[in-house]
Design goal:
single chain, Jelly Rolls, Immunoglobulin-like, 8-stranded antiparallel beta sheet, 7-stranded antiparallel beta sheet, 3 helices, elongated
Length: 517
Amino acid sequence: MRRYFLLLGFLFSSTCLWGQTVIWEENFDTQVGKGVWGDGAGGVTADFVGVNWTLDYSNCTFSEQEDYVKVAPIYSKGRFEARDCDGEAIWESENIAISGYSNINITAKLKQTGSSNNQTKKYIRIYSVVDGVKQAFTTNYEGKGKFDPLDASTIISSGTNLKIRVELKTVNKNDKIIFDDLKVTGTPSAPSSNDTDSEITAPDTQIADQTLVVVAANQAEKEVFRFKMKDEGSGDAKPTKPTQIVLKKATQNTLDWASKILSAKLVTDADTFSGVITDDALTFTITSGDLEVADGTSKEFTLKIKTATNIAEGTKFHIVTFDVQATALQFSTQPAANIVKNTDFSVQVQAIDIHGNADKDYATTVTLSAPNIAGTTSANPTNGVADFSAVQITATSQNVKLTATSGALSVQSSAFDVTDVIDVTSTAEQATLPATTVIDPNEVVEVFAFTLSDEGGDNYPTKVKQITIKPAASNQLLFDDAIQDVNLKANGANLSTTTTITDAGIVLNFEENDFTI
């Protein structure tokens, strides 16, 4: 298998990295979640779609959702784990053809987590199965209880078909049995037919630094990178036949490849190859014979990618910078539901594209309009946001909406009401009760007194519209039955009220401006 690794983001001059003796390998990085786990109701959920290995879990019990035998995530990669499976699970690889190799070396990494040292209920064993014959690895084939990480390995002289078999068990929810990084290498039995004089070089003309609009990059694949594969023709008389090309992510790439690149394709002449996208690599696997660079010639490859809709402005992919172009405005900070007439309030307006991405370099002036608007009505955006900190409405009204306009773009705010005064500094002091009084049914008697104060500081009076008096828990009087009417005095003068009396309390309503402090 030929594997070419390119580090996107740097000029490259290194020769290709060869893997001529790698026969097969499995690291589970693209298979997270594959396997079996409890469904929380005594049953199991299984997912083996797209994997080429098998799992026998017939002796396992999964009593909780957290019980499993599957590929689990570890940082941005994957590894195979068993957790509280209450029985032995058996994992087997696909059939691996080894007839063309000798001195076949098989390696794997085994480990565990947790505190249990029960060696009969917590273990892992690894075997080779060559042409149907099962044999334990010669080095570190078994880990039991609480063991240190093991590098398991074995060597097979020859054979036709190979499978790798792993037996694992754990019965404790705090313990895990783990294996990863399986690899099979060998020495070709016959002289290599592979080309030995190929290299990766810069293209004749590299794609120039460019800015891609986020919306456009989502609608169609864009060319973002080129390189050349060259067969030096130095006397081996063999063509280059690559079977895998891997583009690695460089540090200056700020684009999240796994979540933001929707598709990646390598194009050369009439051939197009689709890639597998991970956090740090684009991997193009090519069927043997589908791509050939003739001896002494070269082919140029162009990388095309299609990206997601939610990419922040200024994000980098190699020589590409993503740009957001505003197609709309939005009130990122809306006005409050109730605004006081002639009082400053603030809103913010942001420039966005059709997917809601912020256009941080948008600089066109934004203007606010509404009936009776005053104060700050025009602002220049900073980082795509226009900040209006001192807007006023000079007349009372209901269902008012602000309209923000910038060039051909406009948007309306949510509706709000404009009132004369809303005073939030008024407080009621502790009530003062007169001595117990026997009340004649025909008399009007003062039974309750309290003080209502305006604390000042806002330049507005308190305009009282409603007072509610509720009975305390110790009160035994049924208001609805015993109270015929209520009079309320302020500074010795009767106040005009509309009164409602129920057992739940006394509600005194005042007309606009009838009771002002």
